[in-house]
Amino acid sequence: MTVTIIRSLPTFQQPGEATDEGAVILRYSQPDTSMLLSPEVPAGTFGKGTVYVTESQVYFFSSETSTGLAIEYPSIAMHAVSREESGGSCVYCQLSDSIHQMFLEASQGQNGDSEEDEIDDDFTELRFVPSDSGAG
Fold it and tell me: What's the chief localization of this chain (predicted)?
């Protein structure tokens, strides 16, 4: 799967600073951003965090919960800037993988198997909603 739950961020380098081939080059970051997923994941999983755009992945990481996602570009089937009902804008993404199953499997490991929770989704929708409506 090209979407991964992360507990820490890689070390980012600015363009031109890279000293080794494996460097993760940071192109953009947007702090104080909410990530909304559909289908929803357990409440409180992510909280507010920062979106990081690199040359090969998009990261979302919440220092509140020490949890985030690393999303490789090939798994982003579609993306667009969208307007929220509240008047702000967001970045809408449709992922080719369903990450809901990933969260179910993680929770089943702790709580036992539950077939009632299975959702037959082939993709995940997510929205990055910055608190700063003028972000861009």
Answer: cytoplasm
By the 8 A CB rule, do 7 and 66 touch? Answer: yes
How far is 48 from 62, CA to CA, in rounded Å?
Answer: 6
pTM: 0.81
* Amino acid at the residue 64: E
Q: Distance (Å, rounded) from C-alpha 66 to C-alpha 73?
A: 23
DSSP class of residue 106 equals: H
pLDDT in tens, the chain (136 residues): 588 889 999 999 988 886 777 789 999 999 999 998 888 887 677 889 999 999 999 999 999 999 999 999 988 888 899 887 766 789 999 988 777 667 666 656 555 444 444 545 678 899 999 998 767 6
CA dihedral 75→67→12→36, nearest 10 degrees, is 50
56 closest CA partner among 92, 7, 4: 4
- Of 39, 131, 27, whose CA–CA distance to 86 is shortest? 131
